[in-house]
Amino acid sequence: MIQSRIREIRRAKGMTLQQVADRVGTTAQTIGRLETGMRTLSIDWVRKIAEGLGADPSELLALPEGGDLSIAGHVGPNGKVALKPSGTFSLRLMASQPVAIEINEGIGAHQKGDILIFEQAGAKNLDAAIGKECLIELKDATTIIARVAPGQLSSQLTLLPIDNQGPMMRDADAVSAAPLIGSWRSAN
């Protein structure tokens, strides 16, 4: 069965349902229904949405063998699972230049052995890093992981520790800030 990757690509591009809808000439509700499979995704819709996302139409569709899993349901209160298909989850990287970092000691929400995946292609756009956990290279060649907040000047960032224990760095001179796009935790 062919599955849609519209949501995955839209989120990777940092776009809202409304932004895509405006570009396509429809409603956010329609785009949401096309993303989740609640509405039939025709070839015409694939073409329009691909154009609105600035993507190749072939990127919007995937076969399960390609690394996509159907979401079978949702977990609610008390761990009760409501089985209701609601789209797909992609195991493929949505990054043009991914870099992986392994956690040696637990820090913040990350446990020892976790693999964090960052997007290097977005590293030069410091404004896009605001509010995100990023792999940051400083002018002194130090590389750290921190949550990014604006600095006093547009060329500077305030770096917040991800574990709430390290020091905050005000007005850090960053060379790049690659946003976290995913993580992997092994079963061990």
Short structural summary:
The protein has 188 residues and is of the alpha+beta class.
What's the name of the CATH homologous superfamily of the largest domain? lambda repressor-like DNA-binding domains
CATH class of the largest domain: Mainly Alpha
Q: Specify the number of helices.
A: 4
Helix content: 10-25%
The unreliable regions are none
Give the topology string: H per helix, E per strand: EHHHHEEEEEEEEEEE
Radius of gyration: 19 Å
Fold-level CATH name of the largest domain: 434 Repressor (Amino-terminal Domain)
Strand content: 25-35%
Helix-strand makeup class = alpha+beta
CATH architecture label name of the largest domain: Orthogonal Bundle
Determine the mean pLDDT. 81
Gap between N and C termini: 32 Å
> Which geometry do the CA atoms define?
globular
Number of domains: 2
* Most strands sheet: 6 strands, antiparallel
Number of strands: 12
Describe this protein's structure.
The structure is a single chain. With 188 residues, the chain is an alpha+beta fold. The protein has two domains: 3-90, lambda repressor-like DNA-binding domains (434 Repressor (Amino-terminal Domain), Orthogonal Bundle), CATH 1.10.260.40; 98-184, Umud Fragment, subunit A (Ribbon). The chain has four helices and twelve strands; from the N terminus they run E-H-H-H-H-E-E-E-E-E-E-E-E-E-E-E. The strands form four sheets. Strands 7, 8, 9, 10, 11 and 12 form a six-stranded antiparallel beta sheet that branches. The chain has a two-stranded antiparallel sheet with strand order 1-2. Helix 2 (17-24) crosses helix 3 (28-36) and helix 2 (17-24) crosses helix 4 (43-53). The chain is globular. The chain starts with a strand and ends with a strand. The mean pLDDT is 81.
